[in-house]
Amino acid sequence: MELRARDHVRGLTAILSILSLALVFGAALGAIPRAAIPQAPDSVLNAIPHVNAVISTVAIVTIVTGVRLVRRGEVERHQRMMLTSFALFATFLVLYLYKVVVQGTAEFPGPEAVYQFVYLPTLAIHILLAVVCVPIVYYVLLLALTRPLSEVFDTQHARFGRIAASLWLVSFVLGNVVYVLLYVVY
């Protein structure tokens, strides 16, 4: 019996989503032992939020560009742009999780009112959208990667791709707002 990824996109999406989110929540909740991760110098750890802000900004550009390309019918360029977006997202996530495991999460240094009424709601929506995006992005990605281009149009790729791109964009933008509040304004 031949096992083909294209016939199991939903199952693969579920497996990848569970593994990815387990890693994220494991890091955020301190379940990954700090000693299991090699320690980078403080200069590298301190640079990660700034590097991630740049990565997020570039990802916003690549997602918007990818959406514009597919609307113009430039499907192959769209595919390259969205794969670039996914690579940027993966890089961002690896760097972020590394920093969280080694140093923990950043404390908000600003006033309590800003913390309660701006920072926390922004962070909560960013996190919620990021979590919701994971399975949708995997699903869209797997639909595209497991089929010839001519067959992708016969799938739910476009429908879910619009949802994924929208949620992904808002999540990246809100992530940059969190960055600005943590590292620029305060």
From TrEMBL:
Where along the sequence do coiled-coil regions lie? Answer: none
From the Swiss-Prot or TrEMBL record, what is one GO molecular function term? cytochrome-c oxidase activity
The alphabetized list of GO BP terms reads:
respiratory electron transport chain
A single Gene Ontology CC annotation of this entry is:
membrane
Q: Which domain of life is it from?
A: Archaea
The record lists the membrane-crossing segments as 12-32, 52-70, 82-98, 118-142, 163-185
User: Keywords on this record?
Assistant: Membrane, Transmembrane, Transmembrane helix
Entry protein name: DUF420 domain-containing protein
Q: What is the organism field in this record?
A: Haloferax profundi
